[in-house]
User: What shape does this take?
Amino acid sequence: MPRLRLLLTLLLLMTLAPVARAEVLRLDVETREPVLGGKTFGDYGPYEVIRGRITFGFDPANPMNARLVDLGLAPRNADGLVEARANFIALKPVDPARGRGVALVEVSNRGGRFSPRYFNRATNDAPFGDELLMRMGLTVVWIGWQYDVPLRENILRLHVPRAKNLDGSAIIGLVRSDWTVDEPADELPASHRNHIPYLVADRDHPDNVLTVRDGRDAPRRIIPRDQWEFVIKKTNTALGDEMTIRLDGGFEAGKLYELVYQAKDPALVGLGLAAIRDVISYAKYDDASVFPVRYGLAAGVSQTGRFLRHFLYQGFNTDEAGRRVYDGLMIITAGAGRGSFNHRFAQPSRDAHRYSAFFYPTDIFPFTSRVQTDQGRSDGLLAHLHNPEHAPKTFYINTGYEYWGRAAALIHTTPDGTADVEPLETERIYHLSGGQHFAWRFPPPPGTQIGEAPAYRGNPLDFSVNYRALLARLVEWVEDDKTPPPSAYPRRDDDTLAPFSEVSFPSIPGLPFPEVMHTAYRADYGPRWHDGIVDHQPPVLDETFPTLVSQVDDFGNEVAGVRNVELRVPLATYTPWHLRASLPGGNGELTDFFGSYSPLPRTDAEQQRRGDARPSIASLYAGRTAYLARVKTEANTLIDEGFLLPDDLDRVMNRAATYWDWIFRD
Assistant: This one.
């Protein structure tokens, strides 16, 4: 019934009200700088970097903005629009007519920029890296979308208004913070990862409750109110003050603490979704655009991959004038998650892992684009598109970590996990086998070895090459309708997707197999959750969704998905999981984001001495030359399959040689 009422309201508004166009009210260019001294990039010519500010205006009466929580309670300008302001950076051809006409909008992760590293291989010494984005003729746009990013220089930020009740009084609501304490601490920050917190409305209100527990699922114990206090620290900025809590005697290592408190003046967090929508609408449809293009792509990684899943779910791929905005999306390492991107008192940084930031609204139904039913509720990620033709061509790209730590299997299975669900024709799902959450360096850094075992914290499998190739495939798909590689991911129908308890992991000294993995819950956030208001803090947890991961081979490496040369021509086991160990609490739980690395025994004698179940390197290859020859063959196969650029062949070969030389260094 609430959805029916919303639909009728939208139809009425569309019938009676004139539809305002998506509008950038003002774009102020502050600086223009040539790239690399005016270097020419083929037919696309020289590039420039533009920096400035964008002022957006959002019409509360426009039906395309109906999902923006508290928009009707925000202050308005003289034209009745709610304003927000963002800083932006654009990398573009000096002459737009020479450009490719394709924009890549990066949804920045916590105010930073990942595209230069992910796609250009940029470093501090070479900020434009190997110049792939320019050689492809792309326009790249970064804008602030998150209001509460940390108080640092050169960060992308969206300035948003605060909501008030219609009578002008403050809106009050519950906010939750939690901490995994691995070292004793005198104070703990109320915000997540140094973001800007919501300040407490009334320090003495009985709703302010601090609890402690001994583990993820252990019972909470209330800490008496007279034993802890709020500490407000002035920052001398207009963005807000910092807030911590202090506990008599300090916070004990090995414990989990959780604070629920009353806050006031919620920020309009959801305007970040509208800003990402309207910046590409401006680029594609506004004749005055400073960076005009014909096609729009968006890329998000981790937090902002989840943001793009939320963007789709809430129907933001249609602008205020009813036009499609993004033609393609590259959703990286989001798993089955969405997030706190459009509800009252939302904290966009909170993410919900196995052993940190617990139970935030991240891994929540629905998970697949196709409509499914769970506990009597039918929904799908694309069920709320305003126009079915506005579904963008989308790559969902996950590593093994997202299956272990972000319930990724749910994006292509039924809610009970018993059957596969096929992606839409406009979608591809790519599982980068064996990878941890982010690409990692090699050789293993000092201090990462696990005791005396030949195993290390941090998984160096280099799937960064796949991101570059898949960006090229997505551009071709959007621009030329060239069919990309078929989806590649573990499946139930061929037994490559299984409960983690059924994974046939070999016995590896010093690398025990996990006994737990991250689980998505059917959680109750309260009766007003569908209106964007959380009443249950913490949520009431119901049954979990199934947890499924890729099966492994005799080396312990994942068998399904896009298998890079590290798995096709193995010298080691690359796990997408790593276990907490030698800590005051939570030992045996998953470590956020990290995988593990364990080289194979070099000889049969070493294998027997270790008691290692895996084959030795000597039994697999006649020597270094034979190993590298096989690597080259498999790398060329990856090029043919579309998962590796020819430009990256030398990198793959050099990395493979480095693996061998390090393992046989003594």
Notes: The chain has three domains: 17-160+268-346, 172-264, 351-358+392-514+549-666.
